Amino acid sequence: TLRPSHVSVPHQGVYVLELADLGQSIAVAYSSPHSALGLVDKGTLRETAALAGHTGAVSALAVLPAGQLLSASADASVLQWDPRARRPAATLSQGGHKRPAPLLSVAGSGDGVLVAAGSELTGDDAVIYFWDLRKAETPMYSHSSTHSDDIPTLSFHPSQPHLLLSASTDGLLSLTNALEADEDEAVVEVANWGVSVAKAGWAGEGGGRVWARSDMETVSLWDAELSLVHDFGDARRAAVAGGWATDYVVQCDFRGDDLQILAGSNDGSFSHICAPSTDRWALERTYAGGHSAIVRSVLFDRAALRVFSGGEDGALAAW
Hints:
CATH class of the domain at 53-234: Mainly Beta
CATH topology of the domain at 53-234: Methylamine Dehydrogenase, Chain H
Number of strands: 29
Strand content: over 45%
CATH architecture of the domain at 53-234: 7 Propeller
Distance between the termini: 11 Å
CATH superfamily of the domain at 53-234: YVTN repeat-like/Quinoprotein amine dehydrogenase
Protein backbone atom coordinates (compact mmCIF):
# COMPACT_ATOMS: atom_id res chain seq x y z
CA THR A 1 0.00 0.00 0.00
CA LEU A 2 1.31 3.42 -1.01
CA ARG A 3 0.72 6.62 0.95
CA PRO A 4 0.77 10.06 -0.72
CA SER A 5 3.88 12.22 -0.67
CA HIS A 6 1.83 15.42 -1.08
CA VAL A 7 -1.86 16.35 -0.82
CA SER A 8 -3.41 19.72 -1.62
CA VAL A 9 -6.91 21.15 -2.01
CA PRO A 10 -6.67 24.00 -4.54
CA HIS A 11 -10.31 25.09 -4.22
CA GLN A 12 -12.73 24.23 -1.44
CA GLY A 13 -16.16 22.91 -2.36
CA VAL A 14 -15.49 21.75 -5.93
CA TYR A 15 -14.58 18.37 -7.35
CA VAL A 16 -11.38 17.65 -9.24
CA LEU A 17 -12.78 16.03 -12.39
CA GLU A 18 -9.86 15.49 -14.77
CA LEU A 19 -6.08 15.79 -14.92
CA ALA A 20 -3.87 16.27 -17.99
CA ASP A 21 -0.07 16.01 -18.15
CA LEU A 22 1.72 19.15 -19.38
CA GLY A 23 5.27 18.11 -18.51
CA GLN A 24 6.32 20.17 -15.50
CA SER A 25 2.73 20.91 -14.55
CA ILE A 26 -0.72 19.35 -14.51
CA ALA A 27 -3.86 20.88 -15.99
CA VAL A 28 -6.85 20.43 -13.69
CA ALA A 29 -10.54 20.62 -14.59
CA TYR A 30 -12.90 21.37 -11.71
CA SER A 31 -16.62 20.94 -11.28
CA SER A 32 -19.15 23.74 -11.75
CA PRO A 33 -19.23 26.61 -10.97
CA HIS A 34 -15.43 26.76 -11.25
CA SER A 35 -14.97 27.16 -15.02
CA ALA A 36 -11.28 28.15 -14.96
CA LEU A 37 -8.68 25.44 -15.42
CA GLY A 38 -5.87 25.17 -12.92
CA LEU A 39 -2.17 24.76 -13.67
CA VAL A 40 -0.61 22.83 -10.80
CA ASP A 41 3.11 22.36 -10.15
CA LYS A 42 3.98 18.66 -9.98
CA GLY A 43 6.52 19.14 -7.22
CA THR A 44 4.40 21.12 -4.77
CA LEU A 45 0.82 20.48 -5.98
CA ARG A 46 0.24 24.21 -5.66
CA GLU A 47 -1.85 25.94 -8.30
CA THR A 48 0.44 28.37 -10.09
CA ALA A 49 -2.02 29.81 -12.61
CA ALA A 50 -5.65 29.78 -13.65
CA LEU A 51 -6.68 29.49 -17.30
CA ALA A 52 -9.90 31.48 -17.62
CA GLY A 53 -11.78 31.44 -20.90
CA HIS A 54 -14.80 29.18 -20.67
CA THR A 55 -18.18 30.45 -19.54
CA GLY A 56 -19.41 26.99 -18.57
CA ALA A 57 -18.06 23.98 -16.74
CA VAL A 58 -15.11 22.20 -18.35
CA SER A 59 -16.08 18.64 -19.29
CA ALA A 60 -12.92 17.16 -20.85
CA LEU A 61 -9.22 17.76 -21.45
CA ALA A 62 -6.74 16.54 -24.06
CA VAL A 63 -3.10 17.34 -24.86
CA LEU A 64 -1.67 17.84 -28.35
CA PRO A 65 1.78 16.45 -29.25
CA ALA A 66 3.41 19.89 -29.00
CA GLY A 67 2.14 20.27 -25.43
CA GLN A 68 -0.82 22.52 -26.14
CA LEU A 69 -3.94 21.86 -24.09
CA LEU A 70 -7.49 21.35 -25.35
CA SER A 71 -10.52 21.87 -23.13
CA ALA A 72 -14.16 21.14 -23.99
CA SER A 73 -16.98 22.78 -22.13
CA ALA A 74 -20.69 22.97 -21.51
CA ASP A 75 -20.45 26.42 -23.15
CA ALA A 76 -20.33 24.55 -26.52
CA SER A 77 -16.73 25.47 -27.32
CA VAL A 78 -13.28 23.90 -27.37
CA LEU A 79 -10.39 26.13 -26.34
CA GLN A 80 -6.82 25.51 -27.46
CA TRP A 81 -4.31 26.77 -24.90
CA ASP A 82 -0.63 27.52 -24.88
CA PRO A 83 -0.11 27.01 -21.12
CA ARG A 84 2.93 29.29 -21.12
CA ALA A 85 0.87 32.20 -22.45
CA ARG A 86 -1.99 31.37 -20.05
CA ARG A 87 -4.63 32.46 -22.50
CA PRO A 88 -6.53 30.71 -25.32
CA ALA A 89 -4.60 30.41 -28.56
CA ALA A 90 -7.77 29.53 -30.47
CA THR A 91 -11.48 29.10 -29.89
CA LEU A 92 -13.08 26.19 -31.73
CA SER A 93 -16.78 26.93 -32.04
CA GLN A 94 -19.61 24.95 -33.60
CA GLY A 95 -19.93 27.55 -36.34
CA GLY A 96 -23.38 27.99 -37.78
CA HIS A 97 -24.76 24.78 -36.29
CA LYS A 98 -28.45 25.31 -35.71
CA ARG A 99 -28.33 24.71 -31.97
CA PRO A 100 -24.94 24.83 -30.20
CA ALA A 101 -24.69 21.82 -27.91
CA PRO A 102 -22.79 21.36 -24.65
CA LEU A 103 -19.63 19.37 -25.30
CA LEU A 104 -18.71 16.27 -23.30
CA SER A 105 -15.47 15.02 -24.89
CA VAL A 106 -12.46 16.19 -26.87
CA ALA A 107 -9.49 14.54 -28.59
CA GLY A 108 -6.51 15.70 -30.65
CA SER A 109 -4.86 13.67 -33.40
CA GLY A 110 -1.33 12.36 -33.01
CA ASP A 111 -0.05 14.62 -35.80
CA GLY A 112 -1.42 17.69 -34.02
CA VAL A 113 -3.68 18.70 -36.91
CA LEU A 114 -7.19 17.47 -36.12
CA VAL A 115 -9.46 18.03 -33.13
CA ALA A 116 -12.74 16.23 -32.50
CA ALA A 117 -15.38 16.96 -29.86
CA GLY A 118 -18.51 15.05 -28.90
CA SER A 119 -21.74 16.66 -27.74
CA GLU A 120 -24.62 16.00 -25.42
CA LEU A 121 -27.82 14.88 -27.07
CA THR A 122 -29.47 18.17 -27.99
CA GLY A 123 -32.86 17.93 -29.62
CA ASP A 124 -32.57 14.86 -31.83
CA ASP A 125 -28.82 15.11 -32.44
CA ALA A 126 -25.65 13.96 -30.74
CA VAL A 127 -22.84 15.41 -32.83
CA ILE A 128 -19.13 14.81 -33.39
CA TYR A 129 -17.45 18.02 -34.61
CA PHE A 130 -14.15 18.00 -36.52
CA TRP A 131 -11.72 20.92 -36.81
CA ASP A 132 -8.46 21.40 -38.68
CA LEU A 133 -6.25 23.48 -36.38
CA ARG A 134 -4.66 25.20 -39.36
CA LYS A 135 -8.03 26.88 -40.04
CA ALA A 136 -9.97 26.37 -36.86
CA GLU A 137 -12.51 29.21 -37.08
CA THR A 138 -15.31 26.80 -37.97
CA PRO A 139 -15.59 23.00 -38.04
CA MET A 140 -14.55 21.17 -41.21
CA TYR A 141 -17.75 19.17 -40.80
CA SER A 142 -19.93 17.49 -38.22
CA HIS A 143 -21.38 13.99 -37.96
CA SER A 144 -24.78 13.65 -36.33
CA SER A 145 -25.80 10.07 -37.11
CA THR A 146 -22.81 8.13 -35.75
CA HIS A 147 -24.45 8.13 -32.32
CA SER A 148 -27.97 8.73 -31.07
CA ASP A 149 -27.16 9.80 -27.50
CA ASP A 150 -24.50 11.61 -25.45
CA ILE A 151 -20.90 11.14 -26.66
CA PRO A 152 -18.77 11.18 -23.48
CA THR A 153 -15.56 9.75 -24.92
CA LEU A 154 -13.35 10.21 -28.00
CA SER A 155 -9.83 8.99 -28.73
CA PHE A 156 -7.65 9.19 -31.84
CA HIS A 157 -5.59 6.11 -32.69
CA PRO A 158 -2.01 6.48 -31.36
CA SER A 159 -0.33 5.69 -34.70
CA GLN A 160 -3.11 6.26 -37.28
CA PRO A 161 -3.83 9.94 -36.64
CA HIS A 162 -7.05 10.11 -38.64
CA LEU A 163 -8.81 7.12 -37.04
CA LEU A 164 -11.20 8.23 -34.29
CA LEU A 165 -12.72 5.96 -31.65
CA SER A 166 -16.01 7.20 -30.23
CA ALA A 167 -18.43 5.67 -27.76
CA SER A 168 -21.79 6.73 -26.45
CA THR A 169 -24.53 6.15 -23.94
CA ASP A 170 -26.41 4.63 -26.89
CA GLY A 171 -24.25 1.52 -26.36
CA LEU A 172 -22.24 1.86 -29.57
CA LEU A 173 -18.51 2.00 -30.13
CA SER A 174 -17.51 3.42 -33.50
CA LEU A 175 -14.38 3.94 -35.60
CA THR A 176 -14.47 6.95 -37.94
CA ASN A 177 -12.13 8.16 -40.68
CA ALA A 178 -11.83 11.76 -39.55
CA LEU A 179 -10.72 12.92 -43.02
CA GLU A 180 -13.99 11.82 -44.64
CA ALA A 181 -16.69 14.49 -44.69
CA ASP A 182 -19.46 12.13 -45.83
CA GLU A 183 -20.67 10.50 -42.64
CA ASP A 184 -21.98 7.40 -44.40
CA GLU A 185 -18.51 6.81 -45.84
CA ALA A 186 -16.60 7.93 -42.74
CA VAL A 187 -17.77 5.26 -40.29
CA VAL A 188 -15.36 2.34 -40.64
CA GLU A 189 -16.54 -0.02 -37.87
CA VAL A 190 -19.41 -0.13 -35.38
CA ALA A 191 -19.98 -2.41 -32.40
CA ASN A 192 -22.98 -2.54 -30.09
CA TRP A 193 -22.02 -3.35 -26.50
CA GLY A 194 -25.63 -2.97 -25.40
CA VAL A 195 -24.83 -0.86 -22.33
CA SER A 196 -24.24 2.85 -21.80
CA VAL A 197 -20.53 3.45 -22.47
CA ALA A 198 -18.79 5.96 -20.20
CA LYS A 199 -15.21 5.74 -21.46
CA ALA A 200 -13.19 3.93 -24.11
CA GLY A 201 -9.61 4.05 -25.29
CA TRP A 202 -6.83 2.40 -27.27
CA ALA A 203 -4.43 -0.16 -25.87
CA GLY A 204 -0.93 1.23 -25.59
CA GLU A 205 1.16 2.89 -28.27
CA GLY A 206 0.32 0.30 -30.93
CA GLY A 207 -3.42 0.70 -30.56
CA GLY A 208 -4.08 -2.95 -31.37
CA ARG A 209 -7.00 -3.24 -28.97
CA VAL A 210 -9.74 -1.14 -27.44
CA TRP A 211 -11.02 -1.13 -23.88
CA ALA A 212 -14.39 0.19 -22.77
CA ARG A 213 -16.02 0.96 -19.42
CA SER A 214 -19.76 1.25 -18.96
CA ASP A 215 -21.84 3.39 -16.62
CA MET A 216 -22.64 0.12 -14.82
CA GLU A 217 -18.94 -0.44 -13.95
CA THR A 218 -18.57 -3.25 -16.47
CA VAL A 219 -15.39 -3.54 -18.54
CA SER A 220 -14.80 -5.03 -21.99
CA LEU A 221 -11.94 -5.61 -24.41
CA TRP A 222 -12.23 -5.33 -28.21
CA ASP A 223 -9.87 -5.86 -31.13
CA ALA A 224 -8.88 -3.11 -33.57
CA GLU A 225 -11.90 -3.90 -35.77
CA LEU A 226 -14.25 -3.68 -32.75
CA SER A 227 -14.91 -7.40 -32.47
CA LEU A 228 -15.46 -8.34 -28.84
CA VAL A 229 -12.45 -10.11 -27.33
CA HIS A 230 -13.76 -10.44 -23.79
CA ASP A 231 -16.51 -8.96 -21.63
CA PHE A 232 -15.19 -8.98 -18.08
CA GLY A 233 -18.60 -8.13 -16.64
CA ASP A 234 -19.14 -6.14 -13.46
CA ALA A 235 -15.78 -5.14 -12.00
CA ARG A 236 -17.43 -4.79 -8.59
CA ARG A 237 -18.13 -8.53 -8.53
CA ALA A 238 -14.73 -9.69 -9.70
CA ALA A 239 -12.75 -11.82 -7.27
CA VAL A 240 -9.40 -10.12 -6.79
CA ALA A 241 -6.45 -12.00 -5.33
CA GLY A 242 -5.33 -9.89 -2.39
CA GLY A 243 -8.71 -9.13 -0.89
CA TRP A 244 -9.55 -5.84 -2.64
CA ALA A 245 -13.25 -4.97 -3.12
CA THR A 246 -14.08 -2.65 -6.03
CA ASP A 247 -16.85 -0.04 -5.73
CA TYR A 248 -16.27 1.67 -9.10
CA VAL A 249 -13.83 1.82 -12.01
CA VAL A 250 -11.72 4.98 -12.31
CA GLN A 251 -10.09 4.15 -15.66
CA CYS A 252 -8.40 1.42 -17.67
CA ASP A 253 -4.92 1.08 -19.13
CA PHE A 254 -2.62 -1.53 -20.62
CA ARG A 255 0.80 -2.88 -19.78
CA GLY A 256 1.90 -4.78 -22.86
CA ASP A 257 -1.05 -7.02 -23.69
CA ASP A 258 -2.43 -7.02 -20.14
CA LEU A 259 -5.50 -5.00 -19.30
CA GLN A 260 -5.17 -3.01 -16.10
CA ILE A 261 -7.96 -1.40 -14.14
CA LEU A 262 -7.73 1.43 -11.66
CA ALA A 263 -10.46 0.41 -9.25
CA GLY A 264 -11.82 2.73 -6.59
CA SER A 265 -13.31 2.30 -3.14
CA ASN A 266 -15.88 4.71 -1.74
CA ASP A 267 -13.51 5.49 1.14
CA GLY A 268 -11.16 7.29 -1.28
CA SER A 269 -8.54 4.58 -1.80
CA PHE A 270 -7.90 3.08 -5.22
CA SER A 271 -6.00 0.07 -6.52
CA HIS A 272 -4.13 -1.09 -9.58
CA ILE A 273 -5.61 -4.42 -10.69
CA CYS A 274 -4.15 -6.51 -13.49
CA ALA A 275 -5.91 -9.13 -15.59
CA PRO A 276 -3.15 -11.18 -17.21
CA SER A 277 -5.74 -13.80 -18.06
CA THR A 278 -9.46 -13.45 -18.62
CA ASP A 279 -10.51 -15.25 -15.44
CA ARG A 280 -8.31 -14.02 -12.61
CA TRP A 281 -7.64 -10.49 -11.42
CA ALA A 282 -4.50 -9.73 -9.44
CA LEU A 283 -4.00 -6.82 -7.02
CA GLU A 284 -0.77 -5.00 -7.82
CA ARG A 285 -0.86 -1.92 -5.59
CA THR A 286 -3.23 0.07 -3.41
CA TYR A 287 -3.11 3.85 -2.97
CA ALA A 288 -4.57 4.98 0.36
CA GLY A 289 -4.68 8.11 2.48
CA GLY A 290 -4.84 10.73 -0.24
CA HIS A 291 -8.60 11.05 -0.66
CA SER A 292 -11.75 10.82 1.43
CA ALA A 293 -14.21 10.50 -1.45
CA ILE A 294 -14.48 9.06 -4.96
CA VAL A 295 -11.37 9.45 -7.14
CA ARG A 296 -12.25 10.86 -10.56
CA SER A 297 -8.91 10.96 -12.41
CA VAL A 298 -5.48 9.33 -12.13
CA LEU A 299 -2.43 10.44 -14.09
CA PHE A 300 0.68 8.31 -14.56
CA ASP A 301 3.92 10.23 -15.04
CA ARG A 302 5.93 7.24 -16.22
CA ALA A 303 9.06 9.28 -16.92
CA ALA A 304 9.21 10.45 -13.30
CA LEU A 305 7.73 7.24 -11.84
CA ARG A 306 5.01 9.23 -10.12
CA VAL A 307 1.24 9.03 -9.91
CA PHE A 308 -1.18 11.93 -9.43
CA SER A 309 -4.86 11.70 -8.52
CA GLY A 310 -7.84 14.00 -8.11
CA GLY A 311 -11.20 13.39 -6.51
CA GLU A 312 -14.61 14.54 -5.38
CA ASP A 313 -13.13 15.74 -2.08
CA GLY A 314 -11.40 18.46 -4.10
CA ALA A 315 -8.00 17.02 -3.28
CA LEU A 316 -4.96 16.44 -5.47
CA ALA A 317 -2.54 13.75 -4.32
CA ALA A 318 0.96 12.81 -5.48
CA TRP A 319 2.27 9.28 -4.97
